[in-house]
Amino acid sequence: MYQQLFDYIERYSHSVLSSEEKERIQSLLLPKKLRKKQYFLEEGNVCPYTGFILKGATRQFSVDSHGIEYILQLAIENWWIVDRQSFMNQTPSKYYIEAWENTELLILPRPNLDAFLEIPSVRDMFWKMSENNHIASQKRVDDAISLSALERYESFVQLHPDMIQRFPLHQIASYLGISRETLSRIRKQSFR
């Protein structure tokens, strides 16, 4: 179960974990299962842990006063899920994180974070992930203000082809900041 996480850490840190480091990681992260539609986090609660997805899919979203959902993140295997602000600052979240499929995770409770980051390979992975997250966030904002709806969809398909099969179109449309009708029209045009 932990081997998938070990492989992930080694890939991002470009170093090999020792047996002792693997044992330490196993002592800090706990397995957790979520049923489809079960919440990992609900609005108003403090995010108590971050989770590494071993199997399954989740979505992070907020809901406005009219009941409209806004998708912030779609995540599948080998992705981390967390409301970073709530987790790091221990403040109430304004997001929901919901299992879209039956999902298996390894969760890191907030009190274990410092010990986790003491492991050199984990610290390297964390910095690389933070860099990648910042770059992806910057690209997403840039795409939202400079690309057409078609270009945003094409970029999403190119970067995340597997997500097209795993999430419904209305959620992908929300993630891209376009209406479901616009996305349907775009998909029909691209099939022609």
Topology:
Blueprint: H1 3-13, H2 19-28, E1 30-34, E2 39-41, E3 49-55, E4 58-63, E5 69-75, E6 80-81, H3 84-89, E7 96-99, E8 103-109, H4 113-117, H5 120-146, H6 149-159, H7 161-166, H8 169-176, H9 180-191
Antiparallel strand pairs: 1-8, 2-7, 3-6, 3-8, 4-5, 4-7
Describe this structure in words.
This protein has 9 helices and 8 strands. It is of the alpha+beta class and 192 residues long. It has a 4-stranded antiparallel beta sheet. Strand 4 and strand 5 form a beta hairpin. The chain is globular, with a radius of gyration of 18 Å. It starts with a helix and ends with a helix. 27% of the residues are buried.
Query: Which residues form runs of ≥5 with pLDDT under 50?
Result: none
What is the chain-wise order of helices and strands?
Answer: HHEEEEEEHEEHHHHHH
Mean residue pLDDT: 94
Question: How far apart are the first and last residues' alpha carbons, in Å?
Answer: 44 Å
What is the rounded Rg?
Answer: 18 Å
* Biggest sheet layout: 4 strands, antiparallel
By DSSP, the count of extended strands is 8
Derived from helix and strand composition plus strand pairing, the structural class reads alpha+beta
Spatial ordering of strands, largest sheet? 1-8-3-6
Structure characteristics:
single chain; about 190 residues; alpha+beta; four-stranded antiparallel beta sheet; globular
Describe, in short, the structure shown.
With 192 residues, the protein is of the alpha+beta class. Helix content is 50%, strand content 21%.
